[in-house]
Design a protein that fits this description.
alpha+beta
């Protein structure tokens, strides 16, 4: 199971990112645990300057926008 953290303030883009990560993972049959991280201190630990951002298994893999479906598939399959 992959642990996915969606880093951001809880804005619409952050919510959309979390929903899309869950939906694509489900379609691909990949087990994930998606967590929304809104604590500024936790976000800064990843040195994120632009949200939404995505960390998978503790590694920052995307930041600054809602990833498109192709990018999400690539991230989940990595």
């Amino acid at each position: 199971m992959k642990t996915i953290e969606v880093l951001g303030t809880g804005c619409k883009k952050c919510t959309t990112t979390a929903e899309q990560m869950e939906a694509v993972a489900r379609e691909l049959g990949i087990e994930v645990d998606v967590k929304k991280v809104t604590d500024p201190t936790a976000i800064m630990e990843y040195q994120v300057m632009s949200t939404p951002a995505v960390a998978i298994d503790g590694k920052l893999v995307h930041s600054g926008s809602v990833p498109d479906r192709g990018k999400i598939e690539t991230l989940l399959k990595a």
